[in-house]
Fold this sequence. Notes:
Number of helices: 12
Number of domains: 2
CATH class of the largest domain: Mainly Alpha
Strand order of the largest sheet: 3-4-8-7
Largest sheet: 4 strands, mixed
CATH architecture of the largest domain: Orthogonal Bundle
Distance between the termini: 36 Å
Shape: globular
Strand content: 5-15%
Amino acid sequence: xxxNSSMLxxxxxxxxxxxxxxxxxxxxxxxxxxxxxxxxxxxxxxxLRALCGRFLAExxxxxxxxxxxxxxxxxxxxxQACLPILHLGLRWYRGWRGIVVYPAAFRVRRKVxxxxxxxxxxxxxxxxxxxxxxxxxxxxxxxxxDPLRSSDRPHGPASNVxxxxxxxxxxLLDGEADGTPPFDRRVHGNLDRETWQRVLDDAFERFCxxxxxxxxxxxxxxxxxxxxxxxxxxHLPLDPYAATDTAExxxxxxxxxxxxxxxxxxxxxxxxxxxxxxYRGGTGT
Length: 285
């Protein structure tokens, strides 16, 4: 039996075999804390709870920069992380174990390659990061935020950093972050890479073109990265970050699929259908 040591303070007596047995009171608290779950019926919630128990037993969460993780905090992250694999299974998160959680945004140093060939380093503040073959890194402040409301940026889109980063983990399962996760014939039926990439590229290009039009309307005295610019982006079906590349387009689309499915379905029907078939295990239901 491998115990998840960071859960032992509160849940030690509930850990059996390869599953954490989540107490009723703790699960009820999580249902109140995450309104996103209210749309799920009782049998689905029961399956999600069991999946969270296995996730917590298999993965190890570590607090960074002095953050002390509690059982409710770990369960809150686990619940959001398990939504993308609810119809797929825990094996889709195979090959890694660690989740590092910072109190708030964390700073990383990145190399930037300019078109003229020059390379320089910049410091970037992130709320989440998924490492190839390594851990998921999260900001607790971002993970704890209500994904369906944003009081500080009322015109911005709903977002969920946990779903975003764990979608990257699904994408990376075949070794490349390119917006095309691997498919399993046993659960995905006739989903194929060629069709996926064709529909993905079309949706990505159309979104980038729409974003160009929006940015062309921003007043010269408004910083495109400021809160004041949010109202210009408010009618976009996805967060502008989706235009970074196809890997980010898939991750941001995955957020939208779970948070605002009607928006992405209306904007990109064929792309929504492929996401639905992927995340629902090809059932289409």
